[in-house]
């Protein structure tokens, strides 16, 4: 790698778009390039960096370890380029109108506020509507402009960007643990209560997938509202799995069941292809991607 020369932004953008789309053909369509041109740009970046960014098992594309490492930096560059362009032309301050973001109640409460503060600074005339719900809102029906989901949508009309991998562990209130004891093994769990987040049968199945055996009788209290369920945990009603980012912002709770492996789940940022051409939605989408992809 020649350290005296910075990689070409067009090559980085080609890599970033290919990684997000998952194929050269889809990335070429999004950038308005031919597939051979896009392929040459990705190859030029690999040559300039002296690393392989993609593996090509059959017709599929898979990021290498080097590709994963470069992806986070490329996203930050993309968001910075968008912000620089808007700032240079004064467009950010002129962007106005309404943009709706849908996410779960917990993510809306614990993850979105920092993004909204930055949006207020960048585009003070923008109106943001946060649709906090655990239901999957239908972007195809324009129920929201941007969605944060834990599953990748399969509709071709939607753009989906994998922005991070979240982690979760089991937590309980210190008051509960002082009263009931801190479980050190699967055998200890039989005497403990759990707080349900909506569908207890699904929660029991997910727990079993991670080597934790629970029974319906252990779920004496439940709420389909994520914030209410988490408040019940914080108030000392029992144990529950929780996204680490939310748990770390909650006073009075402790991580428990240290023998259970880390629970991992994806964060997909999704928007409609047509809506994604809107300056205001692009601004919000890119800022969300930048903030969500930043390691905690």
From TrEMBL:
Pfam families: HTH_1, LysR_substrate. InterPro entries: LysR-type_TF_proteobact-type, LysR_HTH_N, LysR_subst-bd, WH-like_DNA-bd_sf, WH_DNA-bd_sf. Keywords: DNA-binding, Transcription, Transcription regulation. GO terms for molecular function: DNA-binding transcription factor activity; sequence-specific DNA binding. One of its GO terms (biological process) is DNA-templated transcription. Residues 7-64 form the HTH lysR-type domain. It comes from the Bacteria. Belongs to the LysR transcriptional regulatory family. This is HTH-type transcriptional regulator CatM.
């Amino acid at each position: 790698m020649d350290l005296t020369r910075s990689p070409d932004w067009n090559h980085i953008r080609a890599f970033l778009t290919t990684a997000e789309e998952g194929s050269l053909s889809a990335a070429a369509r999004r950038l308005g390039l031919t597939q051979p041109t896009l392929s040459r740009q990705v190859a030029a970046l690999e040559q300039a960096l002296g690393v392989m960014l993609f593996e090509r098992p059959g017709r599929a594309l898979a990021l290498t370890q080097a590709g994963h490492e470069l992806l986070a930096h490329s996203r930050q560059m993309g968001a910075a380029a968008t912000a620089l362009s808007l700032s240079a032309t004064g467009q950010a301050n002129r962007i106005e109108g309404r943009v709706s973001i849908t996410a779960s109640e917990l993510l809306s409460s614990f993850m979105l506020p920092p993004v909204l503060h930055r949006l207020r600074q960048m585009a003070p005339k923008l109106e943001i509507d946060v649709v906090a719900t655990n239901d999957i809102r239908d972007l195809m029906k324009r129920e929201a402009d941007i969605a944060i989901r834990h599953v990748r949508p399969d509709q071709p009309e939607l753009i989906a960007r994998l922005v991070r991998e979240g982690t979760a562990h089991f937590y309980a209130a210190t008051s509960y643990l002082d009263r009931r004891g801190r479980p050190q093994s699967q055998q200890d769990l039989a005497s403990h209560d759990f707080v349900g987040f909506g569908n207890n049968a699904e929660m029991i199945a997910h727990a079993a997938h991670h080597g934790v055996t629970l029974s319906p009788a252990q779920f004496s209290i439940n709420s389909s509202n994520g914030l209410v369920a988490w408040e019940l945990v914080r108030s000392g009603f029992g144990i529950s799995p929780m996204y680490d980012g939310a748990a770390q912002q909650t006073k009075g709770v402790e991580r428990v069941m240290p023998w259970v492996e880390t629970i991992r789940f994806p964060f997909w940022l999704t928007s409609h292809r047509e809506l994604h051409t809107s300056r205001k939605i692009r601004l919000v989408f890119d800022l969300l991607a930048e903030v969500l992809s930043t390691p905690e």
